[in-house]
Amino acid sequence: MTVEEDKKALRSAMHARRAAVAAADRAAAGAALAATWRREQPVLTPHPDGRATVVAGFWPMGEEIDLRPLLGALHDDGYAVGLPVTPAAAAPLRFRQWTPGTLLVGGPFGTSEPAAAAPEVEPDALLVPFLAVDADGYRLGYGGGYYDRTLLELRARRRVIAIGVGFEAQRVDRVPRGPHDDRLDWLLTDRRLLAFA
């Protein structure tokens, strides 16, 4: 099988695995993410000029882990928080600032994103969704390549940290990978935060 065929098969299996996360674990996951972040947060290099470090998250959809408590905690802790704006196919993501109470509008693929009036921000760190992640820091996304393109573009200019966020149940032994797949630096689940070597 090709890498793309392997990815397609794993996506199908991981959608089912994520859907099977117990209701109690799903309900507790959002608060667990925020608590783990605050207890063990990764080193995010502040801007030399004193600007707030920008962390880009994502608004959960479907059966994704609930990131909203973590987004609120980041805002309360003084980070500038951004959410992705999905562009046309084959383009990298852009990010608009989010604060509690920001108006969100519907985006492509069922996403929610800040309205056009919200200022654009460039992240220092990205909280990246995944269907599966392995011990080497490779993630399996939904197949659109948005995060890989975004990381490639941002990392061509400066250091940007990528933190995969999902349920512990989404960890696998190995994710099929191709030449354009970019590694994560950290993993944050409902049970732990760890750095990839």
TrEMBL record:
NCBIfam families: MTHFS_bact. It is an enzyme of class 6 (ligase). One of its GO terms (molecular function) is metal ion binding. It holds the Pfam family 5-FTHF_cyc-lig. GO terms for biological process: folic acid-containing compound biosynthetic process; tetrahydrofolate interconversion. PANTHER family: 5-FORMYLTETRAHYDROFOLATE CYCLO-LIGASE, ATPASE INHIBITOR/5-FORMYLTETRAHYDROFOLATE CYCLO-LIGASE. This is 5-formyltetrahydrofolate cyclo-ligase.
